[in-house]
Design goal:
The chain is built from one helix and seven strands. It is mainly β. The strands form two sheets. The chain has a four-stranded mixed β-sheet with strand order 2-7-6-4, with no helix packed on it. A hairpin with a 5-residue loop joins β6 and β7.
Length: about 140
């Protein structure tokens, strides 16, 4: 009798856990969010969306483009940032800010290569930044 009670109690706890959603199935790996390169250029006359606004036509003497790797799984990563002509940027974390001169039409591609220090897996993300320049 005691064995049946334990089995029924275990089944009841499972039914309650499932009903409460605590044992809900995990999303398949393909449906999970993947890392992406966020960007926002300042100053900007438009607010950035979830993926960031990586362009500006707002008149300014200088522009600042913030790049940020988002949605990385927890871990210990190293980062190497470069621009489209292969210059290594002085950034060593998941975030990098690049300064651009104003009054010039500029297009640049920023790359970040990140390596998971535990697994050795690496990936490279890229984002194009576009500055319209123009008179002040």
């Amino acid at each position: 009798m005691e064995t049946k009670f334990k089995a029924l109690a275990g089944a009841g706890a499972l039914a309650i856990a499932v009903a409460a959603g605590s044992l809900a199935p995990q999303a398949p790996a393909s449906a999970q969010a993947t890392a992406f390169l966020y960007c926002f250029v300042s100053p900007n006359g438009s607010p950035g969306g979830p993926a960031g606004l990586c362009s500006s036509n707002y008149p300014s003497d200088t522009y600042s483009a913030l790049f940020e790797v988002r949605n990385l799984p927890a871990g210990n990563y190293s980062f190497v940032w470069t621009n489209e002509i292969g210059q290594i940027l002085p950034c060593t974390t998941y975030r990098c800010t690049v300064q651009y001169l104003g009054r010039l039409q500029t297009t640049d591609t920023i790359y970040v290569n990140y390596v998971d220090q535990q697994t050795g897996q690496s990936n490279t993300l890229a984002r194009v930044v576009s500055i319209g320049g123009g008179p002040l």
